[in-house]
Amino acid sequence: MKRTLLAAASLLLMTAAYAAEPVKIGFLVKQAEEPWFQDEWRYAEQAAKEKGFALVKIGVPNGEKMIAAIDNLAAQKAQGFVICAPDVKLGTAVERAAKRNNMKVISVDDRLVDGGGKPIASIPHMGISGYAIGKQVGEGIAAEIKARKWNMAEVGAIRVAYDQLPTAKERTMGAVDALKAAGFPVANIVDAPQAKTDTESAFNAANIALTKNARFKHWVAVGLNDEAVLGAVRAAEGRGIKADNMVGVGIGGAKAAQNELSKPAATGFFGSVMISAREHGYQTSVNMYDWITGKAVPPGEVLTKGMLMTRANQADVRKQMGQ
Ligand code: FCA
After folding, report:
1. Of 54, 125, 191, 277, which cross-links 24 as Cys (Cβ 3.0–4.6 Å)?
2. Site described as The binding site for the sugar molecule has not yet been established, but C-87 may be involved, positions (predicted)?
3. How high is the pLDDT of residue 13?
């Protein structure tokens, strides 16, 4: 009798200890300085406050820092993490590090791939519907070309490219396909590969493309995010190509795009397809919390939508996207 009571008591204690284990979640992003990732973190903080878990935000600009961050999270007794890795090819390394430390992992924005380049299905993912959002970019540009009555033969299109990142390729190819569908001449599309996914690299890439193709009268620009298109817009400005001869449409719609679209005078940055930082930051964190606490297993893959935001509808789009 005594022994059974003791056993029951120790079981109770163990359960209590387990239940009391505070939930700690890591949120690792590849480019912490980018407004999009700042927004994701902000919405993740909101989830942490609401659900009462601890959130650890870490910037992971390269593979070495990423592995160190995962091990560090484990030492802090985090039970899981959400990650946008610096390189999707690190997928197997991410999964191995999570397993080794007995942590759960969800990817956000960039889908992790294995050694053969195949998406790792065992890591739940939330990303954007890259091709569809790219098409919205292309359609927005095509409509503006029409509105300005430009002769398409005289328009050059810069595709700021980062094709080693699958979502980047999908986005920019979606934009190119929409332009083609609107009758844009394929020969006028110029690829400008960027070394990194930031404004400076896009600026350098676009500059080369503009120099080599001085024959065009007007320009349009697409890229994987707002930073890519802003780089192209700034490069064009440097060559005297301003708002009346440039239509750039980005993807993201975070602070950088909002600032640009709020400048008193229009620039070549015509708009941005706004995507949901709230969903990517808040919902992935809630999904991780539910997974850790045994409430629910996250969906295998969620792809979110976007809305074209321009100077004309900026306030309305932000309201509709709840941002
Ligand atoms: C990628 C890009 C970011 C953002 C995100 C949704 O990670 O690099 O700029 O667009 O997808």
Report:
1. 54
2. 84
3. 52
d(CA 109, CA 281) in angstroms, rounded, equals 10
Q: Kindly state if the Cβ of 36 falls inside 6 Å of ligand 1.
A: yes
Domain 130-274 CATH (choose: 3.40.190.10, 3.40.50.1000, 3.40.50.2300, 2.60.40.10): 3.40.50.2300
Task: Supply 184's token pair.
Answer: 């844009």
pLDDT at 19: 55
User: CA nearest 306: which of 248, 250, 223?
Assistant: 250
Residue spans of the domains in the chain: they are 24-123+277-304, 130-274
Class of the CATH-defined domain 24-123+277-304: alpha beta
The pLDDT of residue 227: 98
- Tell which atom from ligand 1 comes closest to the C-alpha of 84: 7
Which is the closest atom of ligand 1 to the Cα of 162? Answer: 8
Low-confidence ranges of the chain (pLDDT < 70): 1-20
- Per-residue pLDDT of 266-282, as tens digits, reads 999 999 999 999 999 99
Strand-pair partners of 127: 303
User: Tell me, what's the pLDDT at 119?
Assistant: 98
Q: Are 290 and 30 in contact (CB under 8 A)?
A: no
Which stretches of the chain are assigned E, i.e. beta strand?
24-29, 54-59, 80-84, 104-108, 125-128, 155-161, 189-193, 218-222, 246-252, 269-275, 301-304, 306-310
The reported pLDDT for the residue numbered 65 is: 98
CA of 109 to the centre of ligand 1 (A): 6
Say what the pLDDT of residue 17 is: 44
For the chain, the average pLDDT equals 95
Domain 24-123+277-304 shares a fold with domain 130-274: yes
CB 225 less than 6 A from any atom of ligand 1: yes
What does the pLDDT read at residue 21? 85
User: Residue 252: CB within 6 Å of ligand 1?
Assistant: yes
